[in-house]
Amino acid sequence: MLPLFSDQLPTNADDLARMLEQSLRQIVDTKGDVVAVIEKAFPELRELRINLDGTRLRADAPRPSAISGETMQAFRVENFALSAKGIRVEEISLDLSMQAANLQLHQVRDRNRRLVLVFHAADSGSINVSVGKMDLEKLTLAIARREAEKHGVAIEDLKLSLNSPGPRAIEGTVQLHARKSFFRGIIRIAARLEVNEKLVAKVSGLTCTGEGAIGNMAAGMLRPRLQSFDGRELNLTALPLGEISLRDIEIVAGDKLEVSAQFGHVS
Known about the structure:
- The protein is α+β, with helices and mostly antiparallel strands.
- The protein has 2 domains: 2-122, no CATH class; 133-236, no CATH class.
- The chain contains 3 helices and 16 strands.
- Strand 6 (72-89) and strand 7 form a beta hairpin.
């Protein structure tokens, strides 16, 4: 979705570029221009390119408003591309890219009556997201420390291991070193995520074990919460991509976690 933060649809390519620039600057910190539009015969566009490489998601970025109602045709883009290599989200960096051919953008209004552009259909397209294991460890450690502090436990170290047993599956293990006063322990959490041919992701094999007095205590507290996620499913075709649904996905895990998805008409 591309929010316009306006109640009026642009009437030419220059206005569209300007409105998208203004909207994106409310979401990311950037100094240079990030939008390029090449007109064909407005509202037909030859190209729409968004470059967010090296930007940072703003801490005060407005949250997406709920949209409802039927969508209406707005623009058609022969070549759409979004690049966000090295975009910073809090303290981690990730790479995001999206390409689409003959992308149809529809318009719809949010609850504040402002216009939002949604991806309606495309002949073909792909979305790719990758994040380094070190960044994932950093994010997981920050979350673990925040939660552990509520119980007077300090998390001193964290190690994450990832592997891909199949093209649509990932297995991961998190090992945490915990301390409370003079006591130390280890907590290990393991799980598997697999996406089936219908693009439904399922969590399985979730375990939580501990070593030492603190490790056993913490694992005992975490286990009931974590096990509530075991067997949980998520339909990836229902992700917030406007009216576009994914039709294939691939996961690769190692030094990086990479997720690639395809959408559009099947040739």
